[in-house]
Amino acid sequence: MLKKNAPQNNASKNKEQQENQNQLALQNSTDQLKKIRSALRALRDAVILLNDDDGLEWWNQAAEDLLLLQSADHGESIFDFINVPEFRQYYHNKITANDGVHMKSWRDPNRYLKCELTPFGDEKLLIIYDVTRLQHLEQMRRDFVANVSHELRTPLTVLMGYLENFSDQEDMPRQWRRGFELMTQQTARMNRVVNDLLLLSRIEIEETHELHYIDMTKLLTHVYDDAQAYNQEYGHTLHLQIDTYDGLYGSEMYLNSALSNLVINAIKYTPKGGNIIISWAKTTDGCRFAVTDNGIGIAPEHIARLTERFYRVDSGRSRATGGTGLGLAIVKHVLYQYDTTLQIESSEGRGSTFSAIFSTAKTCSPP
User: Fold this and answer.
1) How many other CB atoms sit within 10 Å of the CB of residue 322?
2) d(C-alpha 240, C-alpha 65), whole Å
3) Which of 25, 40, 67, 175 supports an S-S bond with 81, CB 3.0-4.6 Å?
């Protein structure tokens, strides 16, 4: 009889052990969940869990303090508490944006917030950071660059004037002439850097620009003509392909600077006798501007950093071509005004394509 009941006893014991393990696993999961919620409650950043109807499911103490939430607000729409146009636009149209949305606090205009939305399943996790200190530091940096650049213009103008005046003297000793030529070249280069810094500062500081209709056919023809003049010493073959008459609304001065930078870069970094194509075409997403060359190309590890200020793939070659290291940073900030980014496709030794797609919301037919 004992032998006959042994399997039943073992099965009962195994079942009990399995139940104990399941209960222990459930307890561990519950404890972990409590720790996670305790950690989220302790965060200084506001954390909010939203359901598929944009309603409040859960929030931490920082969110409660920021939005003045109460327990009765469970299930209420997030837009009842953050009724800011920038947030609503980001929430509905840019939910996959990596950088979130920056905006002023709706309660304190001196406070700056950054909202990031992460979808998972039918729910969304909203995190709100206080970036007031970072915003002030960034503003201090912008002001410093703008002020220093502005103050450098006057002494540089004086230096360039005297250097030019002395260089024109026919009786200048031969051993001095080379020195004056180098000083003239370097002050001219410094002047270009200062001008680019001032332009970049204006683009960054001016939050809004007066918008006008931009005739892209006319603008690109102007860019092409300037490029042809610059191209004389390089001997490239330049092509201008315009497949649509659609234009844009924006600042023509800044856009001209950005597109010209891309074309001039293609000319400078393509060996003599190359081919460069400037194009403007309609796509399913809007209109696409592109500059394609068969130049030296760019190694993959450099592409992500090309729009950083003063970043150089080859500093010696960049200085030889007269570059300031700010051209692509200017392009990046101008394109930001059109809610688009610079796309770079390149292969070493085979050439590059720099392009940007302007959405249908930014393009328009000729008036």
Assistant:
1) 12
2) 57
3) 67
